[in-house]
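Treating backbone geometry as a discrete language has practical consequences that deserve illustration. Part of our work consisted of pairing the sequence of a single chain with a tokenised description of its backbone. We regard such an encoding as a compact summary of how the chain folds. The amino acid sequence and the backbone structure tokens for this protein are reproduced below.
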Amino acid sequence: MTMTSYQSVETALATLKRERDKLNVAIAALEGVVTTNGTSGTAAIRATDAPAPVVSTQYARMTMKEASVHFLRSLPVHEPQSTRIIADAIRAGGIRSQSVSLYRTLYNVLNVDSERDNGLIAKIGSNFGLKEWGNV
């Protein structure tokens, strides 16, 4: 194997591992917690269910807002999520916080961004989604 071939394989492997990390976080957030809402028939994630633990570091070097936006973009369905679901997902993705309550800090970060004209986050009821989705 030539050095160029080896580098191509290494690059492809690194890319696949990053994609796998993204999928693992999304799967962890959705797996086992999707229920059907009898009134609207849409999928909803119950805030009382925590995602399965995933060892990942994809969010380790991101801010809470960046990690939250990344997580929301990774969802297969543009459905607003509770602060608890987002907090559990970004924690599973490697976010570390010195805060006494990651949940409260994240809620404040998301809420402040949702109130900004140029913010990325949209607040829908008590849940958060992305303004770019357009349907929120």
Notes: Residues 3-133 form one domain. The beta strands are 34-36, 43-45, 121-124, 127-130.
